[in-house]
Write a structure and sequence with these properties.
The chain is mainly alpha-helical and 338 residues long. Helices cover 66% and strands 3% of the residues. The protein has 13 helices and 2 strands. A two-stranded antiparallel ribbon has the order 1-2. Helix 3 packs antiparallel against helix 4, helix 4 crosses helix 8 and helix 10 packs antiparallel against helix 12. The longest helix has 32 residues. It is a multi-pass membrane protein.
Length: 338
């Protein structure tokens, strides 16, 4: 006699009842979201550290935010910032012009031009910037007069070197020659990134060599040149602080002079830091838009800029707010419309 505790074999499902899921059916599996415990712990630790640093900025009296506020927009500091911008602009323009010439000298088929350009880049990348600046600052000790005449022959016109190359001029020369060595390699790398078939097609069409470089090679090479060049210009902006050894009134030198008089080292260094951050941010934004412009040939639908995203977000919020205040029209079936 069969036991009453035996389980009856599963029979067919009742009509209308859902069929039990199969063992390998994905619909019967329980979906559990991934848990990133390490990520949350790391985020919490970072938030704590940032909160501690912010609290220290706000409560530590050594920062002396009142002194920072008094000097950050003072006339002396603003004039020093202007000198820093002048040095950066002169060295950038002249350095990249000379660097472009050196780059095409290295790409030339002439062994003389290649050797001269390679030697220049090798020497000026080997010597520290501060050594170059001090050397050009003392140029009058090596050449007391500079003149114009026939090579290895008579000099028709000469002038005292100190009257031509002053302190600011020596700084610009040193920064330009140093920057040109790095700019040459940046431009050469960008030119090498252009497909050789572009030049072959241009030569087949009879386009002159100079026009090939100006209208075909450089516009395409700019996409490879700009990221590194932007980084180099930002580095040059901060590198102008080295000219303090020449007693030029740029930002870092003036900050040193001020805290040497009043002893407020920390807030004055904070003033210099704030200005360098602002100037670097402006250059970064300019680099972003210049890169976006030269990327038009490769990316026909570039992503929206941060300003365009902000405008789109504001427009969407306004649209949502306007819909929220509109009266709701009750739905009526078609048969009830009269």
């Amino acid at each position: 006699m069969p036991s009453t505790t035996d389980t009856a074999p599963p029979g067919p499902a009742a009509p209308g009842a859902p069929a039990p899921p199969l063992p390998d059916d994905p619909a019967g599996l329980k979906v559990v979201p991934a848990r990133h415990h390490a990520r949350w712990i790391a985020a919490a630790a970072v938030i704590v550290l940032v909160a501690q640093f912010t609290h220290g900025l706000a409560t530590n009296p050594v920062w002396e935010w009142g002194v920072f506020q008094d000097y950050v927009l003072s006339e002396t500091i603003v004039q020093a910032v202007w000198v820093t911008l002048q040095l950066t602009a002169y060295a950038t323009v002249l350095g990249f012009l000379l660097g472009t010439v050196l780059a095409f000298m290295r790409l030339s088929r002439s062994p003389v031009l290649q050797t001269v350009a390679w030697t220049y880049i090798w020497i000026f990348r080997s010597i520290p910037m501060i050594v170059q600046l001090v050397f050009w600052f003392n140029l009058s000790a090596l050449y007391d007069r500079l003149g114009f005449g026939i090579p290895f022959g008579p000099v028709f016109w000469s002038v005292d070197s100190n009257s031509i190359i002053g302190t600011l001029g020596a700084a610009v020369i040193g920064l330009t020659l140093h920057q040109a060595a790095y700019a040459a390699e940046i431009v050469r790398g960008g030119v090498l990134a252009v497909d050789e078939g572009q030049l072959e097609a241009a030569a087949a069409l009879g386009i002159p060599r100079l026009r090939q470089i100006r209208r075909i090679v450089l516009p395409q090479a700019m996409r490879a040149i700009l990221p590194t060049a932007g980084n180099e210009i930002i580095g040059l902006l901060k590198g102008t602080s080295v000219v303090y050894v020449m007693s030029i009134g740029e930002l870092f030198y003036q900050v040193q002079v001020i805290y040497g008089r009043n002893g407020r080292v920390i807030p004055l260094l904070l003033v210099a830091t704030a200005w360098y951050v602002v100037l670097t941010s402006v250059l970064s934004v300019a680099q972003y838009y210049v890169e976006r412009r030269y990327a038009r040939g490769a990316d026909r639908t570039p992503p929206p800029t941060p300003l365009q995203r902000a405008r789109r977000t504001v427009r969407a919020l306004r649209t949502a707010a306007a819909r929220r205040h509109q009266p709701v029209v009750p739905f009526k079936p078609l048969g009830d419309i009269r």
